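Researcher: Next sequence.
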Amino acid sequence: MNPLISFLVLSLPIVASGADLGVPLSWRKFYNERPLEERQNIAQAAIDNIKQYLDKENYEFKGLGYWVSANTYSAIALKDKIVGTQANKALVTAALKVSASLLELLAQLSLTLMVEKSNFESYPHFYKYDFNDDALWWGTASIYAYQAYNDTTFLNYAIDNWNEASK
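Model: Next structure:
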């Protein structure tokens, strides 16, 4: 390979690392004066608002699609983790798995009801389509759910997802 081309190719990471990714000082207000609690309440209000678009048949948000819905669940779980609450655990859990307690209750009552399957059960390894990046977003949501709610089922979903994607 030509030495000049080699030099240019090898220089690209150095040039890229010099990019200023900070908020421009010319912005009128590049900081946030809102108190932490107010920002947390705004985040929860946004979550409460997006619930109206939830399609409970597949736990995707209408208009967002499969992988963007996974990113939404990631953001919701991260909000709970950062705030230190489990305010949205039921929503995230419903999207990722069918509640074990619900299945146990149905078994105790000897009921055979149509239970909606979670995304993990409907699409093994979260592979709804043949694109591993779509599935990996659900794996990422599972990691964040594990961190937020300390439920190893979510961690196992993420491990299973990664093992499949990395084949």
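Model: The helical segments are 3-17, 36-50, 66-83, 89-96, 100-108, 119-122, 132-149, 152-165. The first strand starts at residue 54 and ends at 55.
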